[in-house]
Amino acid sequence: MRKLIFALVAAVAAFAGPAKAENAVVKGVIEGFVKPVYSQFRSVAAQLSDDMETLCADQSPDKLAAVQSKFLTLVNAWSEAEIIRFGPVAEENRLERILFWPDRKSTGLKQVQAALADKDATATDPVTLKDKSVAMQGLGALEFVLFGTGSEALNEPGDPYRCAYGRAIAHNLADMATAIDEDWQDPAGIAQKWASFGAENPLYRTDQEAMTELFNVFVHGLEMVRDVRLNGFLGDRADDDKPKQAIYWRSGSTVISIKANLNGMRTLFDVSGLVGLLPAESQWISQSIGFEFDAGEVMLDRAAGPILEVLEDQDKRQALAVTRLITSHLSELFGVTLAGKLGLSAGFSSLDGD
Amino acid sequence: MRLIDRRDFMKAAGLAFAASLSPRRLHAMQQADAVFATAYQIKDGPCGVAVLSEDRKVLFTSPLPDRGHDVTYDPLTKCSVIFARRPGTFAIVFDHTGAVAPTTITSPTGRHFFGHGVFSPDGKLLYATENDYENAAGTIGIYDATNGFARIGEFPTHGMDPHEMLLLGDGRTLAIANGGIETHPDFGRAKLNLSTMKPSLVFVDRITGDLIERHEQPPELHQLSIRHMAVDHTGAVWFGCQHEGPSTERPALVGRARAGESFGLIEMPQDVLAGLRNYVGSIAANAEAGTIAVSSPQGNALVIIEAAGGRIVSTSRLAEVCGIAPDRSGFLATTGAGEIVDPDGGAKSAEQYAWDNHLSRIG
Fold first, then answer.
1. DSSP element (H, E) containing A95
2. What is the mean pLDDT, run by run of 10 residues, along chain B of 363 residues?
3. Chain B contact for A228, CB < 8 A?
4. Are the beta carbons of B190 and A350 separated by less than 8 Å?
């Protein structure tokens, strides 16, 4: 199978010259997944920033509800995009500045609460906010502003500080989303480098390095969903659950986010065309992957709702436990079975930091 | 809860080890000139620890409950210890000559192993790098080898995420690489502090636990995690780094420190550095040859450096190379693809094995 990939690459290489070659799978992934999801994130972040302006001009229950609803849309868009954790989003600490989580010792929460209590003027200006602690400028901070203790103050005029801080966070998020989208759209940037490996390419010297980057999206993404996002709050038994350790628990969008993570990986797999590289006798791998993603979607639909309520409901909690099992199956299918058939290793000894 | 359940599962592991040492295997081991130990995972299957000969034979293997990481060895008692990969909580003491029954060590409540450790020169104490995860603080656990490896104390590493630790030639100074990355077992291997991480290399007196000196990366390189080390024939500590910043940055990855004297990264030709892809997985020294080996499984590269002048002696492409240990005038290397490669480049493929990050000479 590895031969087949090389054959496909060689066909393109004949036109591109020997020093570099285009990888059709990677090219398809960038055009069919990466650019669209980061464009969507940019677009929703800009809308939320506008909605915050509207709210701050005239604080009211309707306008707050509109912003809160847009926040959930933004969580959904980000959760699809964030599985691509390299490239522009890795520059300038953007990953942490967009989402500092888990905030295990509530460091971020305390900083946000202190800014609100002290009415810190440097937190209401996007220019000075972006140089403050990463925990004060992303989705976690905005969630507290919009849904946390004291957020009811946004229902009526009177105290403009909380809204101004939220507006600065939304503005900062929109700026980062714009920068990331522009970098992916740059014809000489990361998109070109990832899709066209070559000896002179500083990031991807070989076809295998480019393909490994793609595979690691699935392997790392599934590990993140299971080990970090689910295991972070879902115990082996209900007694061990830690609901307030769940991501986005305040806004009730924990399950929305996990579903979007898996949906992102599914879309990525579908547009990659990796199925086409498998011989007929190995098509079952792709069918199994589809089956597991289907099952995950059914389980997460069953578990819909704010996480504090989900964990109190035995059927819903069980659906999350099954989702955890499904992510393990998917890790095996991608990282071992599919990678093996395509002659790629999932980086056994190099996944991270050992 | 998960940590405790795994401990129960662990209790049987030591027994399996003893049973796997048949008389024939014992004989093979005693005949081999040099033997090496490494953790492995059978592809699609269970994990274990293996003993290899320098002529690239797998002398024996024994199962482990989960992935192991590094092996440390005491030449006096001939005891070796394999530590669990982080955030694991087990370590197994074994004697590859079969004279002593294996012992299982579990880290105490609130601590997990980071995968590395060292013996005191008399073999009576074992030191292990550990995570005090509720406080996000690195600790060294002290275990009494003369009393069933009971844990008898600990001291701080003055940094987070202590990874590899070495004992220097004076028999008293420990060099500890604080990787600087905060993790907590509630969140698997997720890195919790990348924007504020502060790796360091510290020298600590193992008798008093006192900090002797502490070196940090310069502020612009605060995301350059110091993780692995080797001592060369002059006593200098070589360290290998992994960059947690964006891949568009290509900082130097290898450095050298000498207690009381110096600390710094060394320059490498750009093409050699690019070949390491911001990730050094293991570093080893060959005292007789005066060379240092650096491996990168992400870059599929093995680089040999002359310790005295820092000159690059050779660069080899080797898929998923990580485990390296001094052997004769060069290095024996193992890979995630199952290859065992000797200093002359002779390779043997044990395809069912994925060799884990580290390879240690144990006699």
1. helix A94-98
2. 39 51 65 87 88 92 94 95 96 89 95 98 98 97 97 98 98 98 93 96 98 97 98 97 96 96 95 94 97 95 96 94 96 94 92 93 92
3. yes
4. no
